[in-house]
Amino acid sequence: MTALPGPIEEVRDLTPAQLQALLPSWTTPKVIRGLVADWPLVQAARRSPADAVAHLKHFDHGTMPVTATTAPPEAHGRIFYNADMSGFNFRREQIPLKVVLDTLLKYQGQPAPPTIYVASTTLDSFLPGFRQDNPLALGMDDPLASIWVGNRSRIAAHQDVPDNLACVAAGRRRVTLFPPEQIGNLYIGPLDFNPAGQAVSLVDFAAPDLERFPRFADAWARAQVAELGPGDALFIPSLWWHHMEGLDDFNVLVNYWWRAVPGWMDTPMNALMLAILALRDLPPAERAHWQAMFDHYVFEAGVQTSGHIPDAARGVLGPLDATAASNVRSVLRRRLDR
User: Fold this and answer.
1) By CB count within 10 A, which of 107, 220, 268, 280 is most buried?
2) Is 333 in contact with 327 (CB distance < 8 Å)?
3) Organism's domain of life (predicted)?
4) pLDDT tens figures, 169-183
5) Are 244 and 175 contacting, i.e. CB atoms less than 8 angstroms apart?
């Protein structure tokens, strides 16, 4: 590949008030240097991994095990499928967090340790008090805050429906991003059988096989890359593809997910799965008719869709609220249970 990825746009010296004002308007990725540099965890990690571990243990109540993903040294940190995609190259087990942390310290400095990766663990459930000690006000109601802990790892490019603010608290991370429209060039794997709940790119970014995946060269030309250190943060908009690499022997990331939509709205992924079931394999002419229907009722909906219908008679074509959404779900359940 001759093209080189471009940098992710960077901003610096944001105050909490500025962050809260800017976040709702951002639709492209941003690296925010030093956003959480004052966190006690970041300060501890800059002293040593052992100090960072001590800080995390302070909040660990020890009553619930975390889910730890482990892969053998020959995986080289890549959390992925096995060779024939009949399964995965890792296993998961329930382990006390303090055991995971001590094991990570034990493997410090070893040239070929097993990969150890604790992903998406809810902060308030597993480390109560952490957010009070390491605060970040985003100006929105109840974002989902999670912590990710591990050693060197490579997480295949995937996308999330919510917006995401990822804060590096220990170690270094390399992040590679792609716009949502690059989906066709990333060679995405199965929707319903994948390493962690989201479909992933099948391309090994460390050694792209362009004979098997030739369009990846086009995606690479649109990629954006940044290396983040302790205290830095990254805003990843909804549906942007992101490939995440933990570069050090000890890495901690804290992220916040949120959707700027009412809570009664459903996830669009449910609509995608239902569309695959109901539309994808229709005859081409019929599928084209349904494409026009979706444009009319969904993607280009406006006054031409329902302006000619009295307000009280519009039903699901009128403004949606929690009550209307509940009615739609009831209709869907009845239809799907036939």
Assistant:
1) 220
2) no
3) Bacteria
4) 999 999 999 999 999
5) yes
CB within 8 Å of 206: residues ≥ 6 apart: 76, 78, 154
* Residues 47, 126 within the same domain: yes
Task: With beta carbons less than 8 A apart as the criterion, state whether 126 and 60 touch.
Answer: yes
**What was the pLDDT predicted at 336?**
87
How would residue 136 be classed by pLDDT, with cut points 50, 70 and 90? very high
With 80 as the cut, is the pLDDT of residue 302 above it? yes
12: left (phi over 0), alpha (psi -120 to 50) or beta: beta
Total tally of structural domains belonging to the chain: 2
Query: Measuring CA to CA, which residue among 224, 225, 204 is closest to residue 216?
Result: 204
Residue 149 lies in a domain: yes
For residues 122 and 238, state if they share a domain. Answer: yes
**Quick check: pTM over 0.90?**
yes
Q: What is the DSSP letter of 200?
A: B
The residue from 258, 289, 324 where one domain ends is 258
> Quick one: 154 and 189 in the same domain?
yes
Q: What is the mean pLDDT of residues 120-146?
A: 95
Strand partners of residue 176: 225, 243
Residue 119, domain CATH: 2.60.120.650
Domain assignment present for residue 20? The answer is: yes
Task: State pLDDT tens for residues 228-260.
Answer: 999 999 999 999 999 999 999 999 999 999 998
Whether 306 maps to a domain, the answer reads yes
Residue 298 sits at the vertex; the CA angle it makes with 285 and 256, to the nearest 5 degrees, is 125
- Residue-number span of the structural domain to which 207 is assigned: 6-258
What Å distances lie between residue 270 and 148, 165, 180, 328, 336, CA to CA?
26, 24, 18, 14, 13
Domain check: are 210 and 293 in the same one? Answer: no
Residue 263 lies in a domain: no
Picking from 20, 242, 292, 14, the residue whose alpha carbon sits closest to that of residue 141 is: 20
